[in-house]
Amino acid sequence: MADYIRDEEEQAERLRNWWQKNGVATVVVIVLAVGSMIGWRQWQQHQSVEAGKASGLYEKMIGAMPTGAGDGDAGVVKTNAEALIDQFAGSSYAGYAHLALAKLAVQDGDLDEAASQLRLVVDKPATKELEHVARLRLVRVLIAQNELDAAGKELGRTWPEAMQGQALELKGDVAKARQQWDEARDAYASALEAMGGQGGSDRVQMKLDDLNRQS
């Protein structure tokens, strides 16, 4: 019994010594761990709320986009696009907002504004996909502005396989605008091959047929 009590006293003494050396640090670690866990959960909740807010603004923007048939509401598009750009700068949502504003500008005939909006995405894209989409649209605007050298420079970049057909089609458009008929035919033919009969191939075929009729 005495040995048992002595063992208990020795253990208690070791515990007191350990606590004096490490107790405060242990409490700090525990507090920090709990605080970090609470902070992480709060951050996750905040991110969830923000994502829902951005998604709501995006849906309103897209839902109000005019399609050219007299529907839509450009004012609602602009309001929600500007909110996305202001509140979620640098995100994909902001990038799509710039694309939406560029589309409105094209519909209004303001090509300078459209190019400006598209360059904001091209220069600082949230994703590579957004960069490529914005660059293709920028090329179309540049061609419409007869800025053929600038358009050609943009097309000279590397394109993902999924967008090769569109890029080649635009190369054909640039060559056609320069009245370089053979180069345009070659580009359209290459675009058709890259598209493989998928979306846009009918349009490219019409362009190629028009060129062939001219010769």
TrEMBL record:
Topology versus the membrane:
Single-pass type II membrane protein
Instruction: Tell me where in this chain the Ancillary SecYEG translocon subunit/Cell division coordinator CpoB TPR domain is found.
Output: 16-212
Q: Does the keyword Lipid biosynthesis apply?
A: no
Describe the family membership recorded for this protein in Swiss-Prot or TrEMBL: Belongs to the YfgM family.
Top-level division of the source organism's lineage:
Bacteria
UniProt keywords, alphabetically: Cell membrane, Chaperone, Membrane, Transmembrane, Transmembrane helix
Cellular component annotations (GO), alphabetically ordered: plasma membrane
- Cellular location of this protein? Cell membrane
Q: Where are the transmembrane segments?
A: 23-40
**A Gene Ontology MF term for this entry?**
protein-containing complex binding
InterPro entries recorded: SecYEG/CpoB_TPR, TPR-like_helical_dom_sf, YfgM
Under what name is this protein listed?
Ancillary SecYEG translocon subunit
Q: Chief subcellular site?
A: membrane
